[in-house]
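Late entry, evening session. Most of the bench is empty. Finally got around to the prediction I had been postponing all week. Sequence below, unchanged from the version circulated by S.P.
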Amino acid sequence: MPAATIGAVTGSDAATLRDRAPASSAGWLRGGVAGNARLTGSVAAALLVLLAAEGATIPFVGQLLGPHIFIGLLLIPPVALKMASTGYRFARYYTGSETYVRKGPPALPLRVLAPGVVLTTLALFGTGVALAFSSPPSNTLVFAHKLSFIAWVALMTLHVLGHLLEVPRLAAADLPGGPWAARLGGAGQRFTALALALVAGIACGLLGLSVASSWL
């Protein structure tokens, strides 16, 4: 996943109040470092479900091309949101923000993987969008899409394994009554950001199906 799928954040986000942003901060940034981690984890959990659904269409893509296109385009806004949350952490860390520097960067192997994850994600979704909106799709685009998919799967598998254990805790931290629940400002804004990304994704999927209907 990256930045798309890039770097779900590590460490215990419920441990310290020092990572919280000032109360005047807006949106999901109200939670500071911990809020950023929770947003990244929540989006990552949603992406894992959607990617599993997309993967299920691949062996039968000839018969399930419509669902494959719909889910693929639905993924784009959530992927963009995850890139935004991880990119924000990257920018704050390398511009010397005290709380983000204290939190530290992801593990070195994950940082090494990150550029490849970003580039293959952009290639995969870029060629996918081009295929959905071309009529009919060219063999060159199909080949490029398949090639980027192979590279993306290899890198994304390592990326997911590197974050798999922390994603459930981060995704569930804002859920009232959950096993990892802990109050932190901005929960409503983080939920809204994810919900809007999914709604935008559904709109993208429906638009793609409408455009591709002439050759499906």
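Two things to note before I forget:
DSSP finds eight helices and no strands in the chain.
Residues 32-57 form the longest helix (26 residues).
Will write this up properly tomorrow.
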